[in-house]
Each structure stands twice: as structure tokens, then as C-alpha cells.
């Protein structure tokens, strides 16, 4: 049996892992090569302003094996925050080992304790494995489509 997972808030010392993992996730899921200097500033920006959110890191045997980012969306309809789960990454050797499930449980517990009104995430339309995992955790596909317009820097 493998060692238990420990979930903790990320610290600035985790930034190199978070940058590497975000870059790997973008490459794996969207075949996108991210600008690492922009990515590093973006990750550091979460630590610079806690209103942006926070990262959680999963460790097994003292080694970081995965992470996710939580950001907030105010809902005037529900008078509360939705917590968005983003930038999920689990190192390949730790996949299918309960890492995301443990991270999700920690987010859910923290969101409930903070009075959040719900959890949300988005997933690539062809990532059926992730969609099954989310459904197994009790999440349901909602009726919203996502639109985007990138703005010039």
C-alpha cells in the first residue's frame, strides 16, 4: 500500500513546481506551449494577492505529486462565492492514485467551512476520463457554455 496523501496550502517555495506543472498540463491537454515567464508571473500573482485564490499541493512521502488552483467568482444570484478549481495537475507516476480525489475533498471541505455556495471547474470537451472522475465525485455537468475573447496585453 502506498503512503497516505497530505494536502497543504502551497507556499512560494512551490512556485517552480507549479510553473512546471502548469506548463505540462497546457501541453498535455491543449498542445499549448506557454510562455514560462508569463506563467511564472501568473503563478506568483496568486501569492502576491490572496484575493486571487490559492493553490493546494498534494504530497506523498514528503514529495509533491499534484496541485490545483482555487479562484473565486462572486454570485449575486446566490449572494456567495463559487470556488473554481483550475490548473489541476498530477504527476504521471501518481495518476489514478487518489491524488485529485484528495485535493478535491480538501477544497470541498474548505469551501463549506468558508460558506462558499458551490464548486465549479471547466474541462476539455474530449477529456472523458476527467469528466467521469468529476461525476464520480458528485459534480454534475451544468447547462452553461463557456465563451472567451482574449484581449491584447
Automatic annotation (TrEMBL):
Coiled-coil ranges from the UniProt annotation: none
Keywords, alphabetical: Acyltransferase, Transferase
Location of the N-acetyltransferase domain: 5-153
A Pfam cross-reference name: Acetyltransf_1
Superkingdom of source: Bacteria
InterPro entries, per the entry: Acyl_CoA_acyltransferase (IPR016181), Bact_Acetyltransf (IPR050832), GNAT_dom (IPR000182)
Protein name, as recorded: GNAT family N-acetyltransferase
Originating species: Fulvimonas yonginensis
Amino acid at each position: 500500500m502506498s503512503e497516505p496523501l497530505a494536502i497543504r496550502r502551497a507556499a512560494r517555495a512551490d512556485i517552480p513546481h507549479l510553473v512546471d506543472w502548469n506548463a505540462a498540463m497546457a501541453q498535455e491537454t491543449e498542445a499549448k506551449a506557454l510562455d514560462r515567464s508569463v506563467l511564472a508571473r501568473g503563478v506568483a500573482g496568486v501569492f502576491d494577492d490572496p484575493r486571487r485564490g490559492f493553490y493546494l499541493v498534494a504530497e506523498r512521502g514528503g514529495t509533491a505529486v499534484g496541485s490545483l488552483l482555487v479562484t473565486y467568482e462572486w454570485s449575486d444570484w446566490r449572494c456567495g462565492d463559487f470556488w473554481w478549481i483550475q490548473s489541476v495537475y498530477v504527476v504521471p507516476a501518481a495518476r489514478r492514485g487518489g491524488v485529485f480525489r484528495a485535493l478535491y475533498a480538501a477544497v470541498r471541505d474548505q469551501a463549506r467551512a468558508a460558506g462558499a455556495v458551490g464548486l465549479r471547474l471547466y474541462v476539455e470537451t474530449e477529456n472523458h476520463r476527467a469528466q467521469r472522475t468529476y461525476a464520480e465525485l458528485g459534480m454534475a455537468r451544468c447547462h452553461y457554455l463557456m465563451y472567451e475573447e482574449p484581449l491584447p496585453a
